[in-house]
Amino acid sequence: MTDRAGTILSGKRGRMERTLGRELLPPVMGPSGPLSQRVRSFLAEEAEDLYWNELEWENITDEEAMEGGPLTELAFPGFLAFIRGLLLREVMPDSLAPASPRPEVVEDVLAFLCARVVELGDALSAEGNDDADAQQAEMEMTSRLVELVLYRYHELALDDVERIEAERRAGP
In which domain, by residue range, is 104 found? Predict the structure, then answer.
């Protein structure tokens, strides 16, 4: 992760910690141990593909467009479901496979999302940018997506999320 992407991630996490008044700890890794680099990369690439596909679908359809911009939660349903699946710690008793949380993959996905926010910020600051409105919208959605993934990554309770959201709406 680049320094700037890491700063974005630590800043968002730090704001959440200040709001909640406690440190946010990473989730516990699954009992099956770490993934091979090949499998880890494959899962991270699948998440990235979901991001690009759902972003493109939103750009084509404007299905989730609202007055203040698209609702990120609704624009990226498959992506967020994939993240939940990577963090799943319990399965139904009749499941054929045990739960095997993969927080390390979610960390890779967070790095990708933060790097994308940096890339979009750089593009917006470039002169002669003809696509600034679309890039601004993508940057806002991607930044919001980082927050939504962090909520799931840190397994925040609904009350905690509501406190953080109230603080976010109140201002910088």
Answer: 3-16+36-170
